[in-house]
Amino acid sequence: xxxxxxxxxxxxTGGHVFPAIALAEQLPNFEIEWLGVPDRLETxxxxxxxxxxxxxxxxxxxxxxxxVKVLLKLVGSIWRVRQLLQxxxxxxxxxxxxxxxxxxxxAARSLGLPVILHESNALPGKVTRLLGPWCSTVALGFEAxxxxxxxxxxxxxxxxxxxxxxxxxxxDLPDLPIPVDVPLLVVVGGSQGxxxxxxxxxxxxxxxxxxxxxxxxxxxxNDAEVxxxxxxxxxxxxxxxxxxxxxxRADLVISRAGAGTLTELAIAHTPSILIPYPFAxxxxxxxxxxxxxxxxxxxxxxxxxxxxxxxxxRSSTSxxxxxxxxxx
Length: 328
Description:
Radius of gyration: 21 Å
Number of strands: 13
CATH architecture of the largest domain: 3-Layer(aba) Sandwich
Number of domains: 2
Helix content: 25-40%
Oligomer: single chain
CATH topology of the largest domain: Rossmann fold
Largest sheet: 7 strands, parallel
Strand order of the largest sheet: 3-2-1-4-5-6-7
CATH superfamily of the largest domain: Glycogen Phosphorylase B
Distance between the termini: 50 Å
Shape: elongated
């Protein structure tokens, strides 16, 4: 039997690339190749697992002569993707949206190939809203997204997550000396960290530590003030690989509101305080966070409105309450 050959088009941020990798890991019998953009995250993560092809494509928000250049580049990329699909004898395309989805969807549909587009966010991106009706199916991470895609064939499936969240139910953190009976607060800022959240957390941390709360703080790699706070119960880490165990062990998580992180929190059944990234495209993280807040799974604070006093109070109360309720 001829194996199914699938071209995955996913590029740019972790929100696009990680769900696509998670999906690919669940398709061991498929022959998978990847379509991306030069110098983006996929060039670091994909080549060791799947053949990577790149095309030049940019955002469509430019004006004047710059917009004409973007359009010409898009036309060229559609032609190159069309050739790739024909020469590679692919059976279909899977994409997670973003700029790379445009040439992938248009090229595939021009050849009569099926396309599945996955949209993680509660507010679909511009490319999804534009090209969703062209796709065979638009798979949604949030049911709320369907309202923005009235002409597309949609199905709610959630967002693919790393395999460790599906297979590892352990609460053990062997590389972190955290007792099993202490309240634990975890701070994450997304795949690149969040400097503004980091500063806010370091302001609040002494009060949390005085209250007996232990803290694991994933800082990212772009924070010059890492190391300014020292305490035996405070663990600043630029990156942590065993996030499934950490989220399950946490009594409360303070986080941005990217769709992938929210899905992981839901699987781990961990309450959270969400601080949406204020410069996300079309403020889509706020739409994500509202879904969780309305379901009672999280508290939502806008970064511009959140004071250290408010964060200290709500985090301390929520962490202690969660710890008491689910004491292990």
